[in-house]
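Hi everyone,

Forwarding the result from last night's run.
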Amino acid sequence: MEPTEASQPRGHPLLPGIIATLLGAFSLAVAALLVKVCATALSTLDLLWGRAILQTTGLGLFFLIRCESPWGPRGLRLWLCLRGILGCLAVVGYFMGIIALPLSDSISIYSVKPICAALLGACILGERLTWMHALATGLSLLGCILVAKEEHHDAKSKHSSELYLDPVVAVILLLLAALFAAGTMITTRKVMAGTALRPEVPVWYFCFMDLLLLGAATPLLWGTSFTHRAADIGWTHLASLAGVAGCSVLGQQFFTYGLRYIPSALGTLLLQMETVDAFVLQVIFLAKVGPMSILGALLICTASASLAIFELRSSSRDSDNEDGESGESLNAETTDRSSVSSERDLVNLAAVDLESRPVGHATDPDHLN
């Protein structure tokens, strides 16, 4: 079954996408906080496998109850598979960074994904790449350096023995995760824009590919630090694991639905609210945030917001130009129709005049003159 055109909601066409993306950002921030809770006892493999099994089972039951196929239209399955693989790689790198670095720092570094999306769009989709993209990239990288520098200093002086990853390695993994997340945004926009595809279908592909990749990677990771458990597992950790799975699915479903109505540039900007949510959650539940981390996060958010605003204004100008061109073509078409109509009226009047004359006079040159 081929995807059909999505019906436009009443009111402002961007409003459903904006609300859904903001809800998705909050859900992902809550999931990130719960990951930190799980990491106090569960190993990385415990966390990844538990999340994958719970969310795949939940979505599978959803499609089973509705008696629907989770695989989507045949023409979009290749894009859906790519979306699932990129999303899995992004989440694995993201979770590893969250465990090794403070929550706010991890999300701040991960928030360079709008910059990665702009670069991928230029290379793959042929989108424009301007000086604003270069400036935003520089600011974001500077913010990442500030975040990594403070955490590297703290790790050496306080708790380096508690981390299974060096902070610099964790930053690199988070940057790669941001690149994969940008690819996820592009492929999601590809399958959702202009179609009536259920948002659960792309999320199902993510869950299914997640299980496949984990099954292939587990033998390689077994016996390493990824299987190390910090403490005995309690009910709090299990409940947090269920919350990670639920919030991850909700967050993905919300922002997948939002990309049906809003462009990827606006979607990535709104997802940066996850950084704000994470800062608030960390201050409330975990610990204070260092000054260099705050400065780095501000630079990253400033760069992402500047690039998104630039893209929105550019697309608005392009839309105005298209409206102007369509208006001119409409006026020209109206003028042509008026001219044709006038010519037809003259021909009809001439025909009526000839029919009203006597037959003998119709061919008389004097009468014709």
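Confidence is low (pLDDT under 50) at residues 1-5, 155-163, 365-369.

Cheers,
N.
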